[in-house]
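Quick one:
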Amino acid sequence: MFPSTAFHPGGFTLIELMVTLSVLAILAAAAIPNFSSFLHHSRMTSESSRLSSDIETARSEAARRNATVSLCPTADGTSCTDDWSKRRIIFVDAGNDGQIGAGDEVIRNSDAPTARTSITASNIPSGTVVRFRSFGTSTPPNAAWQFCESGSSSDGLMVSLTGSGRASARQVPCNAS
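Output:
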């Protein structure tokens, strides 16, 4: 006898495979914009949270040590710059001059923000240093940093510093650059 022609192997037909792949492609096309938005928001939240953490560390160290503690961006780890897209350094400012001197103790060197992150500081008269006094207040009292993603018009985040030295973040519009 001949084997039965009704035997079906456990595979898919070409039509079933094409329909499944089409459905997956449609779902992926719908998910990609949401995923891009999620990644953008995650990057901005991460970067702004790192600055907020640096601010809180500087503030608490000033109170703990009963001394002035400064926070500034640095390119080389030994001097302050006005480019807040560089890594940041927190140090005990023994000379109270806003510069890292021989007698100043470095508390933390942060990692540099990602290259795609644009950080614009405002309300910092010197452009470089934020100081925290031993009772927690900051100079300047109303500093702010805007975090945007280069080349993106999606909203970014603004970290604002109050006179009491506390940081808060809020969503702000960004312009593509």
